[in-house]
Design a protein that fits this description.
GO terms for molecular function: glycosyltransferase activity. There is one protein chain. The protein is an alpha/beta fold. The chain folds into 2 domains: about 190 residues, 3-Layer(aba) Sandwich (Rossmann fold), CATH 3.40.50; about 180 residues, Glycogen Phosphorylase B (Rossmann fold, 3-Layer(aba) Sandwich), CATH 3.40.50.2000. The protein has 15 helices and 15 strands. A 7-stranded parallel β-sheet has the order 5-3-1-6-7-8-9, sandwiched between helices. It has a 6-stranded parallel β-sheet with strand order 12-11-10-13-14-15, with helices on both faces. Strands 2-4 form a two-stranded parallel sheet. Helix 4 packs across helix 6, helix 8 packs across helix 13 and helix 11 packs across helix 14. The two termini are about 15 Å apart.
């Protein structure tokens, strides 16, 4: 490896952000490091070198000085800890993950150190709606940053609307490691198993998904498995009440959050993935398309989803899945019926999905593309 790239994230790393880890671990020509304020899921995302502020020894003077300055609002971490890491490691590229991190790193961009910022969703929707001052902050970011990445055309339009020059903006697809996923196409017989995955937040549309499942499968040999957990919007009890009101409480199984390999087993053993995403009342929306849609297709599974955000960019309606309008429960139910009434069609969709993921979302191809983008701003 020759040049270096520092990946900056507030916390390294939430289980829902495997897409960052995929790129990080597949660099070929750029030597990467991670810088963050805190650690989580270290046993899952075991990567070095990492620079994490809260991992500093408590006897370290820097820990207390930097923390006190930030707490008192005198000098932020970006002007103390981040500055120290950048001075010591001196990367050629600084890659900020999420818009607010890009804002913090603007002062550290130099003629010899380019700034790349990836937008993922809430940072270009809910955050701006709830905190309008970010529009002004983003103006400075767009002026000084060198490259801005999004995962699809719908997200691109959101970032352009915030003032990002089109000349600085590029689509960088979400990457998955297809070698870790063994396809298993839907079976011709046996009970139908439908899977939903995600945090219990409004934009994931899980109440809609439960109602659509009930409309098709109430009292039939079918199970809806829900992988994920609470995130301060819905509780498991909330979703359980929806299932009970629809008379499918005995057909719905909650697994909680799972380790990545366990989650992949759930994807591999389901018959169809259900992803009823929509825009939340708060303005929160999918940044592009949930990663599970890619991993389901790589697993050979058809997807029933909505036309929300960049989902139509990764699911071809009628070819790798069936799409309905966001919030359209009857449309989701009809899409489920179209799939489950023709098992051969489900298998064909699965086969096309596997091919598409290998061609368009494999991390080895996309990591090379990302490094070529870095080259282009050097």
């Amino acid at each position: 490896m020759g040049e270096t790239v520092g990946h900056f994230r507030t916390s390294f790393l939430p289980l829902t952000q495997t897409f960052i880890y995929q790129y990080l671990t597949h660099h070929e020509r750029y030597e990467p490091f991670v810088c963050a304020l805190s650690s989580e899921n270290r046993d899952v995302f075991d990567f070095e070198p990492r620079e994490v502020f809260l991992d500093l020894p408590r006897w370290s003077p820097r820990f207390w000085v930097y923390g006190s300055l930030a707490k008192l609002g005198i000098r932020g971490i970006e002007n103390t800890y981040y500055q120290r890491i950048l001075d010591r490691r001196d990367p050629d590229i600084v890659h900020a993950h999420f818009g607010p991190m890009g804002v913090k790193l603007v002062p550290h961009r130099t003629n010899d150190r380019q700034l790349v910022t990836s937008f993922y969703g809430y940072d270009a929707s809910q955050l701006v709606d709830s905190n309008p001052e970010y529009r002004t902050k983003y103006e400075e970011l767009f002026d000084h940053g060198d490259l801005f990445l999004v995962e699809g055309p719908a997200m691109r339009e959101k970032v352009v609307a915030l003032g990002c020059p089109k000349s600085k903006l590029a689509i960088q697809r979400i990457a998955i490691d297809t070698t870790r996923i063994e396809p298993r196409f839907p079976q011709d017989d046996g009970p139908m198993q439908v899977l939903m995955v995600g945090r219990f937040v409004e934009k994931k549309g899980m109440p809609d998904g439960i109602k659509a499942f009930a409309s098709v499968f109430e009292g039939k040999a079918a199970e809806l498995r829900i992988v994920g957990g609470e995130a301060d919007e819905y509780t498991r009890e909330d979703l359980g009440r929806v299932a009970a009101d629809c008379n499918v409480e005995n057909q719905v199984t909650f697994t909680g959050f799972l380790e990545y390999d366990q989650y992949l087993r759930e994807v591999r053993t389901c018959d169809v993935l259900l992803a009823p995403s929509k825009r939340a009342e708060s303005g929160d929306s999918e940044g592009g398309a949930p990663t599970v849609l890619l991993e389901a297709q790589a697993s050979g599974k058809p997807v029933v989803a909505t036309t929300h955000a960049d989902i139509p960019y990764v699911i071809e309606d009628g070819k790798t899945g069936v799409l309905a309008a966001p919030g359209d429960i009857s449309g989701l139910a009809a899409a489920l019926e179209r799939c489950v009434n023709d098992r051969e069609r489900m298998a064909r969709m699965g086969q096309v999905g596997v091919e598409r993921m290998e061609q368009r979302h494999d991390v080895r191809v996309l990591a090379e593309q990302l490094e070529e983008r870095y080259d282009g701003i050097r």
